[in-house]
UniProtKB/TrEMBL annotation:
PROSITE patterns: NUDIX (PS51462), NUDIX_BOX (PS00893). It comes from the Bacteria. Belongs to the Nudix hydrolase family. NudC subfamily. Its cofactor is Mg(2+); Zn(2+). The keyword Magnesium applies. It comes from Mesorhizobium marinum. Transmembrane segments: none annotated. Residues 176-300 form the Nudix hydrolase domain. This is NAD(+) diphosphatase. One of its GO terms (molecular function) is hydrolase activity. The gene is nudC.
Amino acid sequence: MTFRLFDAPQAEASQFVGFAGNIIDRQAEKRSDDSTAQALADPTTRLLLVGNGRILLRFNGNGAAGGKFSLDDASALGADIAGAVLLGTGPDGPVVAAPVATESDALPEAIKAVDYRSVYMQGLIDPADLGELAQGASLLAWHANHLFCGRCGKATEMRAGGYKRACTACGAEHFPRTDPVAIMLAVTRDRCILGRGRHFAPGMYSALAGFIEPGETIENAVRRETLEESGIRLGRVVYHASQPWPFPYSLMIGCFGEALNDDIDPDLAELEDCRWFERAEVLAMLERTHETLFTPPPGAIAHHLIRAWAEQR
């Protein structure tokens, strides 16, 4: 087997997807139960305020957005400071994420609650802040879904600055989870398979995707999901890139798969459509010059998978 590590590029493909620009020092081995309180006592600490799939952004007269607030500003906006979690330390000091109500009628005029997809698709905040959003939003969503112990059903309490919950009754400890999702492009040298979900925008086609199941390798999940959704059997599978995906706390694992048959048998209960695309048509979809069809936006890992294949020599 060829050892490919030292032939790999210095900048891996995962660095260029949306939500992947986080540069925070997480200080994972130094978290204590009072680490969030200590951070909030630091006047340099800034807070991300998120809730219901949205983040609060402050807009100035030129339309530029800022996504971090002081403790006083966060409290004035109704943030749940007791439910805040410490993300780590950034270049300017500690960064904390706190849950907040995001109903627009309760917000000052210069502050808007923007959904996560719009934030990354419109480039409203820089890549580092977008990476922090993925971390904070995923962590707060996990806390909201794990208020009670999965072992005995009693209430749990936040510990370790937000990176653990402990049961108040049986003492069981629960740690944040990340759901792995395989997203894959089945290809030949000249064609690839793209599909349409029923919730997609009109004209958009993307790579196939599905959750990795317990006891399953990434490669076998790619083969299984591709076969289930398209009827295409895969041979070789190779990893390309990954993407944090805060909907609510997933990790997208992007792969290419070698298609072994041509006849598509799509699962139309899962998909609206699924078919082969020639390279020239895919390039037009990527560049938005196709008459009717297009691919996901550049921040999405599906876009990077599709472009990496379509632009290969």
